[in-house]
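Re: [help] complex structure
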Amino acid sequence: MTDLQAVLDSIHKELAPRIGEGKVADYIPELAKVDPNQFGLSVVTVDGKVYNVGNADVPFSIQSISKVFMLTLALGKVGEGLWKRVGREPSGSAFNSIVQLEHEQGIPRNPFINAGAIAVTDVVMAGHAPREAIGELLRFVRYLADDESISIDDRVAKSETQTGYRNAALANFMRSYRNLDHPVDYVLGVYFHQCALSMTCEQLAKAGLFLAARGSNPMTGHSVVSPKRARRINALMLTCGHYDGSGDFAYHVGLPGKSGVGGGIFAVAPGIASIAAWSPGLNKVGNSQLGAVALEMLAARTGWSVFGD
Ligand code: GLU
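Output below.
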């Protein structure tokens, strides 16, 4: 049996001299203020054991990782009908690309690029006021992690609301193709708040544990989705979870995962564990530089890659 705490400790020790690498996202002013010299890693196994190292208890802005939770809610609401609104193919483009959206006539390539996530948020909003949709997501994440202390950082949401011109362009574009049912301002308001969810590595790993455990959270006993749906969400994370760095992440790490520009990466070793890594400095495609390195080390040392050990 691998001594997981020893593996985490050795990764932390080896990466310590590199903490601070990469470039903190600065297109959202509030994120530019985050101290880059932080690194956390948390692993929660399907038998309920929690392993942490570094700043695994420091809340950070989960940003696009929230798209996994919104997708889960949207699939619960409309099931496979969701795929009329958004595709399931890797984009090979930047997370906020407009070109592809025009080419594909307002149907985003997948639910994890920004345009796709905005369409997914629009689906979850059906029958809700924006505030209620935000509340639904927050309650869902708290329920998943069994932690009522999880909150939304309003300063981050406000900061992105003031500067989210590109997301506004994507949303307006989709609305012009009738792929948004709600007013652009409302949808973006919900989207910016979901991205501003603030969670620690440990909370994130716990919240996503159902994806490692055939759709149920073994720590709480809560059944969240069917095994088939968990498998499919994992497939989407593997193929689309890191924007135009998805192939590279599969090559180096070999686990389904989703990154966010706050420097977090959530990953799943199916049947074994859920993992959250965080370090604010990003690489060229907007994924956490050290987070990806840490996950590569973890996968190599545990043999957890879905492609074999
Ligand atoms: N809120 C960010 C945006 O829409 C999320 C991007 C990300 O985390 O990759 O630009």
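The first strand starts at residue 40 and ends at 45.
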